[in-house]
């Protein structure tokens, strides 16, 4: 007999056919009602046992967390909340869970803090919150591929181990096969990477962008979707040392087209979640509502989770230049009253997350795209604008800022002019010999091109309403934490 999944079963009509379902016990009430979950949906299946017909020894083993196999008939439910339930004819306990052990874990049926759940990351997926988040994460991954595949992009696997620093920010994890205790030294007494596995210094990638550019300049439209690594010591609710990034790169596309692409893409995947994750989002909306009830009214959001998702899908993102953004910030109340930690005094200041959040949450009250940033605070590969009258140097960069999240996308039109790029790299101390291949692209049929990177976990945070990025990735890696 075929085993069924609970998601499908809950949609089906009562029938005389026997069905078999495997799952984990969420609760067992009155020796009669098993709430069974198999991960296919947030909903549990009610399985009704006539305890008179079952051995007591067997019933004793039906405990919270146990894996069981249930055989029975689908009948109309007498109880509230579900259309059908299972009248059980047979139960097999596949894997027991000792109640005394369960009591010490997050499987015990009571409210646990997200911090406590994080300590037991191998079990937390058995909870409603995490199963809802991770099912949504899975659907969003699919939506990412669907969007790009439908729109003629090629999925490109950029390398995980690289010999270059794509962001030029020096936040890399080294990859080495050398003995950490006694590495081979060269004549100057430094570690001799010529003796290392790759015969040079290598690291985990911080971004697949530079490699993606080479592919865009042949395939036209490409995207990457893979893990990226940053050794930045940021202990915040929005930073991970290992995160997944989506990086489209498109030939013959300028910055305006790049902004259109980012906006269209985000709206598509958000809509996909609204349409395909209704049960999970409904649960997560209620969770967020309960969580916010504990906060002062001024910190609660005005919209519910689904209202926020609909808002993003249905409204245009506001586009403002960096220069306009600085003017708004300078005149803003928190700046004048010195409420910001970093006061904005002049053009050229880097925007901190407090400024980004002010613009998005207080000033514009919608997603914002800031473009044309000062060249000095952005990466070497961004297209230099012609100088303005007052000689301010800006680059064709863009950041998409989201409510509650801050920066969700960073991107740019790329510098396609060989001489300008070379000069920028020299000025910024980017090693030309290591990135000769990147410069080469500008010698053989160079063209305007653009792309961006979207932090997948920040997207999942936005869609699920989870406040901490550690709770939207299965096994988070952060400073001081790489358990499991
Ligand atoms: O702004 P970033 O550093 O841009 C790049 O890496 C470009 N090479 C992308 C490109 O143009 N192809 O990172 C892009 C996005 C950020 O906007 C943010 O959403 C996410 O990646 N991100 C992080 N997410 C989680 N943890 C971190 N430590 C992150 N650093 C960046
Ligand atoms: Mg950025």
User: What is the C-level CATH assignment of the largest domain?
Assistant: Alpha Beta
User: How many domains is the backbone divided into?
Assistant: 2
| Rg, alpha carbons | 27 Å
Quickly count the helices: 15
Report low-confidence residues grouped into runs of 5 or more. none
Kindly report the CATH topology of the largest domain: BirA Bifunctional Protein, domain 2
Instruction: Name the helicity range.
Output: 25-40%
Unique bound compounds: 4-amino-1,4-dioxobutan-2-aminium adenosine-5'-monophosphate, magnesium ion
Distance between the amino and carboxyl termini: 37 Å
Oligomer: single chain
Strand order of the largest sheet: 7-11-12-17-16-15-14-13
Mean pLDDT: 95
Characterize the biggest β-sheet: 8 strands, mixed
Instruction: Provide the β-strand percentage band.
Output: 15-25%
Q: What overall geometry do the principal axes of the alpha carbons give?
A: globular
CATH architecture of the largest domain: 2-Layer Sandwich
- Which structural class do the helices and strands define? alpha+beta
Task: Output the CATH homologous superfamily of the largest domain.
Answer: Bira Bifunctional Protein, Domain 2
Count the E strands: 17
């Amino acid at each position: 007999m075929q085993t069924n999944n609970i998601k499908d079963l809950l949609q089906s009509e009562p029938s005389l056919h026997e069905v078999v379902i495997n799952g984990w016990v969420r609760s067992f009430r009155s020796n009669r009602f098993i709430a069974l979950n198999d991960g296919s949906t947030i909903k549990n299946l009610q399985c009704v046992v006539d305890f008179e017909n079952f051995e007591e020894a067997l019933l004793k083993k039906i405990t919270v967390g146990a894996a069981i196999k249930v055989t029975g008939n689908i009948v109309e439910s007498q109880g509230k909340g579900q259309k059908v339930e299972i009248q059980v004819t047979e139960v097999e306990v596949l894997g027991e869970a000792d109640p005394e052990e369960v009591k010490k874990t997050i499987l015990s049926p009571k409210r646990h803090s997200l911090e406590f759940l994080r300590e037991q990351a191998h079990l937390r997926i058995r909870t409603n919150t995490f199963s809802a988040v991770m099912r949504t994460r899975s659907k969003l991954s699919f939506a990412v591929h669907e969007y790009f595949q439908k729109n003629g992009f090629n999925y490109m696997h950029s390398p995980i181990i690289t010999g270059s620093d794509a962001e030029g920010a020096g936040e890399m994890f080294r990859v080495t096969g050398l003995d950490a205790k006694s590495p081979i030294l060269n004549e100057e007494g430094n570690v001799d990477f010529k003796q290392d596995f790759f015969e040079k210094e290598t690291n985990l990638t911080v971004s697949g962008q530079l490699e993606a550019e080479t592919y865009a300049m042949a395939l036209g439209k490409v995207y990457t979707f893979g893990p990226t690594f940053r050794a930045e010591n940021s202990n915040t609710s929005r930073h991970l040392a290992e995160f997944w990034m989506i990086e489209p790169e498109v030939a013959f596309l300028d910055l305006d087209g790049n902004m259109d692409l980012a906006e269209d893409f985000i709206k598509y995947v958000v809509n996909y979640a609204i349409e395909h994750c209704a049960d999970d989002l409904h649960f997560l909306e209620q969770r967020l509502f309960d969580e916010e009830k504990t906060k002062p009214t001024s910190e609660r959001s005005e919209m519910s989770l689904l209202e926020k998702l609909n808002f993003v899908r249905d409204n245009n993102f506001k586009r403002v230049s960096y220069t306009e953004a600085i003017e708004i910030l300078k005149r803003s109340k928190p700046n004048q009253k010195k409420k910001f930690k970093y006061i904005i005094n002049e053009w050229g200041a880097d925007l901190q997350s407090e400024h980004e959040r002010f613009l998005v949450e207080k000033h514009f009250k919608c997603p914002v795209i800031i473009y044309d940033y000062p060249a000095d605070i952005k990466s070497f590969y961004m297209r230099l604008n012609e100088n303005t009258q007052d000689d301010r140097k800006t680059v064709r960069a863009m950041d998409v800022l989201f409510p509650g999240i801050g920066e969700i996308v960073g991107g740019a039109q790329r510098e396609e002019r060989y001489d300008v790029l070379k000069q920028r790299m020299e000025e910024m101390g980017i090693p030309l010999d290591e990135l000769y291949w990147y410069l080469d692209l500008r010698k053989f049929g160079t063209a305007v091109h653009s792309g961006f990177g979207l932090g997948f976990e920040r997207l999942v945070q936005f869609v699920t309403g989870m406040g901490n990025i550690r709770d939207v990735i299965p096994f988070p890696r952060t400073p001081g934490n790489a358990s499991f």
